[in-house]
Each structure stands twice: as structure tokens, then as C-alpha cells.
Write a structure and sequence with these properties.
- The complex is a heterodimer of chains A (438) and B (249).
- Chain A is α/β, with parallel strands linked by helices.
- Chain A contains 10 helices and 20 strands.
- Chain A has helices spanning 3-15, 23-38, 54-57, 73-76, 113-118, 123-129, 139-147, 381-388, 394-407, 416-429; strands at 87-92, 95-96, 109-112, 152-156, 166-172, 179-181, 184-189, 194-203, 209-219, 224-231, 237-247, 252-259, 264-273, 279-288, 293-302, 308-317, 322-331, 339-348, 354-363, 369-377.
- In chain A, a hairpin with a 2-residue loop joins strand 1 (87-92) and strand 2.
- Chain B has a single domain (2-248), classed as P-loop containing nucleotide triphosphate hydrolases (Rossmann fold, 3-Layer(aba) Sandwich), CATH 3.40.50.300.
- Helices cover 38% and strands 29% of the residues of chain B.
- Chain B is built from 9 helices and 12 strands.
- In chain B, a hairpin with a 2-residue loop joins strand 11 and strand 12 (223-228).
- The chains are: A alpha/beta (438), B alpha/beta (249).
- Chain A binds chain B through residues 380-383, 385-394, 396-397, 400-401, 403-404, 406-408, 410, 432-435, 437-438, and chain B through 48-52, 71-73, 75-77, 80-82, 84, 87-88, 90-94, 96-98, 100-106, 109, 117, 120-121, 124, 139, 141, 158, 162.
């Protein structure tokens, strides 16, 4: 059975365990119809021109976990940012793991979407926010919505600053064979509130894992959200990450995406600015090799005046790896004084590595500052020579230069322990041994 | 230590060096002077092992070994050091981390363990003090946003740390004010010994007041056309390079 058919028939199985009278169920049904009409995207879709899901969709994925699996903390500790105190929401094969998690309802809510969807006390928030910013006309998002059941739920009330970061981690164990995961998270940050979130998807199995994730983030007036995505998965795991951000006036949302692993990764990152003086920042470092594929598809909707957006994506591609950057900036005719900046710089380390980079600017206002630049290059030969004259072998010297190239993206990482961790990941990935500062 | 015989080198099929002969022995300081475009920087770059330069004829022998067979990093491991006229900026890599990487790379090539952190730290502190380098400077990204003088001082700091047998200083005086020039020259002089040698490449005589050469060579149009002692540098300063050109004409 083709995956599409399988999804459609699985939905009926899902319905048996859901509350069909809930308004969320109407959303699920409508979304399933959307998916049924659209199907999975193909390379004929302009937005998927450089990324093909065809091979991945041929696998015979399990849709629901057959049984609950458990993990020992010592076996998975390294996937946590364990150096610092944090809240944790951890899932194993899509099922919440109370043992690995550390949730809270003290001052802020850090818990499960399943709880938020079913308990009366969250009804108001769900009605106000659930599936409100996620695209209604995008097939993979619609597919996720129709199966949306579990994921993280974060609610930071007015004027509260979350005292420690929140880690959201999705493990897959492979005990289901090839497995399709569809986590769904909802992050609501009220007026003047602040939060830092780290998200990670980690497969622990050589079975094929495909994750189709949707996260909705709402930042109210003057809120601050720092969101970090660590994508350093096994070579047999693929991720389609759909993140939708809605911002109110004076708010600030920063999303950093670190793509170092996985077989195929597609990041759909969408920002909508619903007020004035909003700042939206998207940064990314991609370092891949072999036949890995990473696609960043960003969209910023400037629909109000006096807002800013900053995009800075660096890519380093080795072997036969393929990178895609498609950055779309839309500036509505009333969005005067918009300042939109987009930069995509790439280094190809091997002749067979590929990068497709495409800025897309649609500007309907006349008093705006929009800049975009993309570069594709090899390493500076003079710089390489300089390092080699200091006794640093060619391979290591190349690593050091690529490290330097990617490094400035890390400056804006606001969690020092995370910055150190990513720094080390980059160094390891590039074969650079810098040790620690003396 | 260094024996260059009839060296011809070209870049992109253009011959720049047209038969260089030079003998440098341990304990000596040589100055190579010459007008712009005479091939001074090319000579230093070829000795250091840049792959874009092709040696079409002649040889460079260092400590009995033909350098033609060695990569730039292998030459560094043997004790050749080039202080760059235009050092490269490397954001995100601190001066300290860079020098650690360089030192341990050389040690690894010699089959040695990494230098113990304590020893490294001590050495860094000593050499930094000698060159009047502030400790804050050491945690800055390599050459990023450095002034011309800071870059040159950092080159000499690396020289001090790596302790090469042969140091080639390419236009080290350019971009330095007189105080920085004195500090840099003083550093080089302190590092001098009976076992190592220095080749100073410069357009002007100024640096040679502080790093006093045993021999001065004039490079013109890809050849060493005149050699002498330090007095030759003064003569060049007084008469200008046109004097050499006329003499050759």
C-alpha cells in the first residue's frame, strides 16, 4: 500500500481512540481532506524543486507505536544538554517518557500537548492558538495536523521569564521497524514573557525513521523567544520540520537551526509579523557530507510597518551532499520601513557537492530596506597556505578555515553551555581539535 | 643550513625568480632588499612551499634535505617559518587556540605527545610578555580586526612560540610605528642564537637599524645582483634603487 493510502486508512484507526465531539477533531478531519487532495509534495511543486521525498515515501513505515519502549538515561544522556539545569519534555517513539522528562506547572506550563488537547482547563488556549498559524494549505502540515496527538506544550504567562531553558527531545528506538513520527508542539509566550527552547530529534536505530514535525510558536507583545534546533541525527533518519511563528508588536523571536546530520532534512520555517517593531531572526549552520541532504525553506511575511527580519545561513558541503536554501521575503504594501536582511554563504569542499540557493523577494512597499546575498565558494587558498606554514596539516587547516567560516553564526546563541556544545560539534564535524581555551 | 642554487620559479607561467643563489648558515642574519616587484615576496613564498609557485629549475636545500619534496606543513615541521606580510584573519579561532593547534601539529609530526597545558600556558605567558602583548589580545580571534602593528606583533609571537631554525620575515616593518618596530625587533634579537638564522626581507633599511644583518643582498628582476655587509643597506638608503638599476644597465 502506498504511504498516502496507508495514512488515510490509519486515520480511521486513530479516530477510534479520540474524542470525536472535540472541536479539535473537526480540525483533524478537515486537515486530512486537505492532505487527501494535495498528497505528498513532489519535485513538480515549485517549493520542492530541489528535494525529493520519493525514495523516503517508499518505506513501509509503522504509523503508531506497537508498544511502549523505555530508555536508560545513561544511554541517551549525551543527547541532552545535561550541563545545565533545564525543563525536559521527552518522547520515545512518540510516547511521553515521564522517567526522562522534567515538566512543570509552577508559574509556567511545560507539559504535553495531549494533556492540553484533552483537559478542560486548557480549552481556551487550544481554541485560541491550536492550528492557528500553521498553514492550512500545505500537505505535510495538514497531514501532521490530522494525526496531531502528542508533543510539547509550553505556556509562559504574561511577564514571566522562564528561569531555565526547555529541552524537547524526540527519540526513536527502532523497535517499531521503519517508523513515521508526527510530533506536534505548541508554544505560547504571553506579553513581556521570555523563554528559551532547545529541540532535538534523535534516532537510535538503523531502521528508517521519518519525522514530520509541526511546531507553532506564538510570541505576544514584547515577548522574547529563543528557539534552537539541533539536527545531528543518524544517517538513516529523516526530518521534515515545519515551524510556524506568529509575532505581535515589539516581540523578538530567534530561531537557530544546526543541521549536521540525518539523511534528508527539510526545514520549513515561517514567520508572520502581526504588529509593528517586530524582530525576527533566522540563523543556520549546515555541515553535511556523504549523500546527506538539507533544505532550508524560509518565509517571512512582513505585513506591518517598521519591522525587521534577519537571516544568516552558512552551509558547508562535502562529498556528494546537497544543500538547498530558499529564502522568501514578502513585504506587503502597507509594510513601510521594513528592514529585511538575508544572507546565505556556502562552501563546497568537494567537486560533487551541490548547493541550490534561491532568494525570493516580493516587495510591494516602496520605503523599505531589503538586502540579500548569496555566495558559493571554495576555501581561500592563501589562508590555507598561511595555516600550513604554521605546521597545521592540509586537512586540519581546511577544517579550521571552515570552522572559522561557520563560527560567527554562533555569536547570537544565548545559552553559553549550548554555544560550547555546538562549537564542539562543529569542531568534531570538521576534524578540528581546538581543545579548550587556556 | 639553507642552500639555494640557481632557483627559477614561476607563477601562472610567468617566471619571477630567474636564478637565485643564496647560502645561509646557522647564527647568521641576512637581509634581502630590492624594489617592488623584484621577487622578494616570491622568494619567501617559494621557500615556505606555496603550491601555486612552480620551481622550474634549481634547488632549495634545508638541513641537507631538498625542500621540493616537502609540503608547506612539512617544511614548518623541519623548522622553516615565514612571517607574512599580510597575515590571514581567522574569526572564531583565538590566538591561543591557534598557536596551540600549530605547536601540537608540529609535535604530532615529530611523534611527540601534545604539549602539557601547563607548559603551554607558561610558554605563552613568557613569549607574550617579551613582546609586550596583553593577555586580552590572546583571547581575540586570530588577526580579526587587528591593526597592522598587532598583526605583525602576532606573527613574531608565533615565531617565538614555534622556535624555528630559519625565520623569514617578509616586510615585517610595514605597518609598524617606531615603538612597535623596536618591540618586534627586540623580540627577534632575543630569539637569535648560534643555531638559528633569520632572513629579513624589506624594502627599507629602517628595520635593519634594529635587526642588524651580517649580509645584505639586493634582489632585482628575479636575481641577486649585489651582496655585501650592512653598509650596503645604508648605501641603498642613500642612493635609492635607481643606483642599482643604473649600475646594471
Amino acid at each position: 500500500m502506498e504511504l498516502k493510502e496507508k495514512m488515510l486508512s490509519s486515520f480511521m484507526a486513530l479516530e477510534q481512540e479520540l474524542d470525536l465531539s472535540s472541536p479539535v477533531h473537526d480540525i483533524r478531519s478537515t486537515s486530512l481532506k486537505t492532505f487527501e487532495i494535495l498528497g505528498f509534495p513532489t519535485k513538480k511543486d515549485e517549493a520542492w524543486k530541489y528535494t525529493s521525498l520519493a525514495k523516503l515515501l517508499k518505506n513501509d513505515y509503522s504509523i503508531f507505536p506497537k508498544k511502549e519502549s523505555s530508555l536508560e538515561l545513561k544511554d541517551v544522556k549525551k543527547y541532552f544538554l545535561y550541563e545545565i539545569d533545564s525543563y525536559k519534555v521527552v518522547f520515545i517513539d512518540g510516547i511521553y517518557s515521564p522517567f526522562l522528562s522534567d515538566t512543570t506547572h509552577d508559574g509556567i506550563d511545560v507539559c504535553l500537548l495531549s494533556a492540553a488537547l484533552s483537559k478542560p482547563k486548557y480549552k481556551g488556549v487550544i481554541e485560541k492558538y491550536f492550528n492557528k498559524v500553521a498553514a492550512k494549505d500545505e500537505s505535510l502540515t495538514a497531514l501532521n495536523t490530522s494525526f496531531a496527538k502528542e508533543g510539547a506544550y509550553v505556556f509562559v504567562p504574561k511577564s514571566v521569564i522562564a528561569e531555565k531553558p526547555i529541552q524537547i527531545i524526540h527519540f526513536s528506538t527502532g523497535e517499531q521497524g521503519d517508523f513515521l513520527l508526527q510530533p506536534r508542539s505548541l508554544i505560547v509566550v504571553e506579553e513581556n514573557a521570555q523563554v528559551q527552547i532547545i529541540e532535538r530529534h534523535q534516532s537510535l536505530t538503523p531502521h528508517e525513521v521519518l519525522t514530520n514535525s509541526v511546531t507553532e510558536i506564538f510570541a505576544a507583545k514584547n515577548a522574547l523567544v529563543d528557539y534552537y534546533k539541533i539536527q545531528n541525527d543518524r544517517i538513516d533518519a529523516s526530518l521534515i520540520d515545519n515551524t510556524y511563528v506568529a509575532q505581535e508588536r515589539d516581540s523578538n523571536v530567534n530561531v537557530h537551526t544546526f543541521s549536521f546530520g540525518g539523511k534528508l532534512t527539510r526545514n520549513n520555517l515561517n514567520f508572520t509579523q502581526n504588529g509593528e517593531y517586530i524582530d525576527s531572526t533566522m540563523k543556520g549552520i549546515t555541515i553535511i557530507g556523504e549523500q546527506q541532504h538539507v533544505d532550508h525553506y524560509t518565509l517571512v511575511n512582513h505585513v506591518q510597518p517598521n519591522c525587521e527580519s534577519h537571516q544568516d545561513y552558512k552551509g558547508i558541503y562535502a562529498d556528494k551532499s546537497v544543500g538547498v536554501f530558499n529564502g522568501k521575503i514578502y513585504v506587503d504594501k502597507i509594510a513601510q520601513k521594513t528592514n529585511a536582511f538575508q544572507q546565505n554563504n556556502n562552501i563546497l569542499l568537494d567537486n560533487k557537492a551541490t548547493i541550490n540557493t534561491k532568494p525570493q523577494l516580493e516587495i510591494f512597499a516602496d520605503d523599505v530596506k531589503c538586502s540579500h546575498g548569496c555566495t558559493i565558494g571554495q576555501l581561500d587558498e592563501d589562508a590555507l597556505f598561511y595555516l600550513r606554514t604554521r605546521g597545521i596539516p592540509k586537512r586540519e587547516a581546511k577544517g579550521l578555515l571552515t570552522y572559522a567560516f561557520a563560527n560567527n553564526v554562533l555569536e547570537s546563541v544565548a545559552i553559553p553551555a549550548l554555544k560550547t556544545r555546538i562549537n564542539k560539534l562543529i569542531a568534531t564535524k570538521l576534524g578540528v581539535n581546538l581543545g579548550h581555551d587556556l | 643550513m639553507l642552500t639555494i642554487k640557481d632557483l627559477h620559479a614561476s607563477v601562472e607561467d610567468k617566471e619571477i625568480l630567474k636564478g637565485i643563489n643564496l647560502q645561509v648558515n646557522p647564527g647568521e642574519v641576512h637581509a634581502i632588499m630590492g624594489p617592488n616587484g623584484s621577487g622578494k615576496s616570491t622568494l619567501s613564498t617559494v621557500i615556505a612551499g606555496h603550491e601555486d609557485y612552480e620551481v622550474s629549475k634549481g634547488s632549495i636545500v634545508f638541513d641537507g634535505e631538498d625542500l621540493a619534496e616537502l609540503d608547506a606543513e612539512q617544511r614548518a615541521h623541519k623548522g622553516v617559518f615565514l612571517s607574512f606580510q599580510y597575515p590571514v584573519e581567522i574569526p572564531g579561532v583565538t590566538v591561543t587556540n591557534f598557536i596551540k593547534t600549530a605547536i601540537n601539529a608540529s609535535r604530532k609530526a615529530k611523534g611527540l605527545e601534545d604539549m602539557p597545558a601547563k607548559e603551554m600556558l607558561k610558554s605563552i605567558r613568557e613569549k607574550a610578555a617579551m613582546l609586550e602583548i596583553d593577555s586580552k589580545f590572546l583571547s581575540r580571534s586570530l588577526n580579526e580586526g587587528f591593526s597592522g602593528g598587532e598583526k605583525k606583533r602576532n606573527e613574531i609571537f608565533q615565531l617565538a612560540m614555534l622556535e624555528p631554525k630559519l625565520a623569514i620575515l617578509d616586510e615585517t616593518d610595514s605597518g609598524l610605528d617606531i615603538d612597535a618596530l623596536k618591540i618586534v625587533a627586540n623580540g627577534v634579537n632575543k630569539l637569535k642564537s648560534e643555531d638559528n638564522a633569520v632572513v629579513v626581507i624589506t624594502h627599507y633599511q629602517r628595520l635593519l637599524d634594529y635587526i642588524v644583518p651580517d649580509f645584505v643582498h639586493v634582489l632585482y628582476n628575479g636575481r641577486i645582483v649585489k651582496s655585501g655587509t650592512k653598509e650596503l643597506a645604508h648605501e641603498l638608503e642613500a642612493k635609492g634603487y635607481d643606483w642599482i638599476k643604473q649600475e646594471l644597465a
